[in-house]
Design a protein that fits this description.
Blueprint: H1 6-9, H2 38-45, H3 61-70, H4 78-83, H5 87-90, E1 111-112, E2 131-132, H6 154-165, H7 173-185, H8 206-218, E3 234-236, E4 242-244, H9 266-276, H10 283-296, H11 308-320, H12 323-327, H13 331-349, H14 358-379, H15 383-406
Antiparallel strand pairs: 1-2, 3-4
Bound molecules: heme C (2 copies).
One heme C (HEC) binds at residues 85, 87, 89-91, 112, 114, 131, 133-134, 136, 139, 142, 145-147, 154, 157-158, 161-162, 179, 183, 244.
Length: 422
């Protein structure tokens, strides 16, 4: 049985905003699984920016629904869901949460043992084997899935994460489809250093170009530049087993490296291959390789500050997902979606701690109840009034945003006076 730290004893899932007042004082849940360091706090304040494939058009319904589900602890069910963990927790913004740290399961930030008794999932193996969280950017191009390449499609991997890894209930097909659609929409952030087929531009700095020449000779048979720097297969490269070749795009935001994060930085990864492949690089060749990998792994505008305006825009967008089931008179789906949206309102609520923010919290609780009221009408099969009430709800939230914005000083949204985690 997992030993529970005081940190986790404090976590109770009452965040659909029907909970007790005492919990309103607690810091945001995410501070409890983030390294208590300046880097950890900086990560929470400005997490990786989400990059979706279709940036101009509004994403399709399934992608938006998948986005909501990706952020929803409820789909992981059981204990893990009650802790407040969602896919987003570990794959933040679709990238990797490199600052995740929970003493029971992490040996370093960005790692967790996902088969530890702590999770209370069926896959507990009694071994201490933390793995590094992979980024899901461009994940549609990087099958097979799992560090050891066990799964060939995203749907079966995702189902396995929910049911086998974290002990959640069997996901409904529409929910699984949405999660897959969302993950497939996760794009690699644009990298202006690379041209077609993953080649550096001719105007790239000389060290990077020299590094590219060594890379083509020594590394490209597994990290194919024209195939997102992977080969869709697994190899033993002397890291303690056979592992799926990872893409090298986005390296800038995913240190530490290798399946268990054993290489703290690019230099450590280069030194590893230099040794294992007996390349005999001198210091210049290693520096050139570093310059090349940094150019390949660069991420433009990698992180974006978390803002109240952004969170409220997401909430309104998520609530619009109710239009479809309300039009189709599908009460069960509307119910699930509304519960997920209310949980996201709870995430805003926890960012307004202290008695000074009681008014804001009251507003958020009222919004949450009003949304529940919409679903109540749907349950009574009063669909037309429910649709009207949802439209009114959206107008209320749109105009109420200013009130919340005005009260943001001293909240977790305030970049100056950001309340600091315990
Ligand atoms: C506690 C952290 C955590 C949570 C929560 C989590 N993951 Fe993961 N995820 C990981 C780790 C660690 C791996 C690597 C595991 C492995 O090799 O089996 C991984 C691997 C993956 C991969 C494979 C990526 C690849 O390129 O091989 C996908 C896809 C994925 N997760 C999707 C999800 C989805 C969808 C959810 C929510 C339903 C989720 N994850 C929840 C930590 C997490
Ligand atoms: C035989 C195939 C193969 C060759 C050759 C190879 N790699 Fe890899 N590379 C892999 C595999 C497999 C992994 C994952 C190992 C693990 O997770 O433990 C990996 C991981 C990496 C990583 C860490 C990526 C991450 O996100 O964790 C870097 C960086 C890297 N390789 C760079 C190189 C460089 C530079 C060379 C040439 C000097 C090279 N590789 C040669 C297969 C290869």
């Amino acid at each position: 049985m997992a030993r529970r730290t005081p940190v986790f004893q404090a976590i109770v899932a009452c965040l659909s905003l029907t909970g007790t007042a005492a919990l309103a004082q607690a810091p945001p849940l995410e501070t409890r699984w983030t390294a208590p360091t300046p880097e950890g706090r900086a990560f929470l304040a400005a997490p990786p920016r989400e990059v979706l494939a279709e940036t101009d058009a509004r994403p399709p319904y399934a992608v938006r629904l998948g986005h909501l589900a990706f952020r929803s602890p409820a789909i992981l069910g059981g204990w893990v869901g009650r802790l407040g963990l969602a896919c987003e927790t570990c794959h933040t913004g679709g990238a990797a949460n490199v600052q995740f740290f929970v003493a029971e399961v992490s040996d370093r930030p960005g790692n967790a043992d996902v088969t530890h008794a702590f999770w209370r999932g069926p896959r507990e193996d009694g071994l201490a084997n933390p793995v590094n969280f992979p980024s899901l950017r461009g994940v549609r191009w990087t099958a097979p899935y799992g560090r050891d390449g066990r799964f060939f499609d995203l749907a079966s991997f995702t189902r396995n994460v929910i049911v086998a890894e974290f002990g959640g209930a069997e996901p409904e097909p529409w929910l699984l489809d949405a999660l897959v659609a969302y993950q497939q929409a996760l794009a690699l952030p644009p990298n202006p250093n690379l041209g077609p087929l993953g080649k550096l531009g001719a105007d790239a700095p000389a060290p990077a170009l020299r590094g590219e020449a060594s890379f083509v000779r020594d590394c490209a048979r597994c990290h194919l530049p024209s195939a997102a720097f992977a080969d869709r297969s697994s190899h033993d490269v002397g890291t303690g087993g056979v592992f799926d070749t990872p893409s090298l795009l986005g390296l800038a935001e995913t240190a530490p490296y290798f399946h268990d994060g054993r290489a703290a930085d690019l230099d450590a990864a280069i030194a590893h291959f230099d040794g294992v492949l007996e390349l005999g690089y001198d210091a210049n060749e290693r520096a050139d390789m570093h310059a090349y990998l940094a150019a390949v792994g660069a991420v433009e505008r990698a992180r974006a500050p978390r803002t109240l305006a952004g969170d409220l825009a997401d909430i309104r967008d998520f609530a619009k997902l109710l239009d479809e089931p309300l039009a189709g008179e599908d009460v069960a789906t509307a119910d699930v979606i509304s519960a997920m949206v209310r949980r996201q309102l709870g995430r805003i609520h926890e960012r307004f701690p202290g008695s000074g923010h009681a008014g804001v919290r009251d507003i958020l609780v009222a919004w949450s109840r009003a949304l529940d009221g919409v679903i109540g009408m749907a349950r009574r099969r009063d669909f037309a009034p429910a649709r009207d009430a949802l439209a009114a709800w959206d107008r209320t939230v749109a105009s109420g945003g200013k009130t919340l914005e005005a009260a943001a000083a001293g909240s977790f949204y305030d970049p100056e006076g950001r309340a600091s985690p315990p």
